């Protein structure tokens, strides 16, 4: 697959395991980072967001000089929160006789949705309404590890001290750089 790529040669956190490679790109002036997890041998990326694998990435990350090639991507999701809210027992707030305290008589919730967007390009990452920029420029010797996200891959914006992912998704078609939204994982 021919994919237009952005390139970075830098000393960054890197990890590898059976069937995957991962890098962590820290955001400047923020306690957040983007992790890219690339499968080996054209494997499907779905399993790359499994909690056990994300924990293995967190445990294994170590600084290495990396030559990274990754596509620009634009990811979005739209999730109807009503079914999971009802499954958790929040049924009455959606009914006509809902009691929502002192807000207003006769008020009920008709819908609840979550929308998230992440755009990654040369200028950084824009996630929902937050923007982070990478600060990774310096001269170093030639890279010792190469990571190329020219196949479907997973990503997560994480809190590195805890390894907790705040946003996660799969780029199913790295060649789609036209601004078309990628699909959330199923």
UniProtKB/TrEMBL annotation:
Gene source species: Phytohabitans flavus
Name assigned to this protein: Serpin domain-containing protein
MF-aspect GO terms: serine-type endopeptidase inhibitor activity
Cellular compartments per GO CC: extracellular space
Top-level taxonomic group: Bacteria
UniProt xrefs under InterPro entries: Serpin_dom, Serpin_fam, Serpin_sf, Serpin_sf_2
A Pfam family hit: Serpin
Domain Serpin: 2-174
Gene3D superfamilies: Alpha-1-antitrypsin, domain 1
């Amino acid at each position: 697959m021919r994919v237009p790529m952005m390139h970075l040669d830098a000393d960054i956190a890197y990890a590898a395991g059976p069937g995957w490679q991962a890098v962590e790109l820290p955001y400047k002036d923020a306690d957040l980072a983007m992790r890219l997890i690339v499968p080996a041998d054209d494997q499907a990326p779905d399993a790359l967001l499994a909690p056990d694998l994300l924990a293995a990435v967190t445990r294994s990350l170590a600084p290495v000089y990396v030559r990274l090639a990754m596509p620009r991507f634009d990811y979005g999701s739209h999730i109807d929160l009503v079914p999971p809210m009802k499954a958790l027992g929040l049924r009455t707030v959606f009914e006509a006789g809902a009691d929502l305290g002192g807000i207003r008589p006769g008020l009920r919730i008709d819908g609840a949705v979550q929308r998230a967007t992440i755009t990654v390009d040369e200028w950084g990452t824009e996630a929902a309404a937050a923007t982070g920029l990478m600060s990774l420029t310096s001269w170093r010797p030639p890279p010792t590890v190469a990571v190329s996200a020219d196949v479907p891959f997973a990503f997560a914006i994480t809190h590195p001290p805890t390894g907790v992912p705040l946003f996660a998704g799969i780029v199913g078609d790295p060649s789609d750089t036209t601004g078309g939204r990628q699909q959330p994982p199923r």
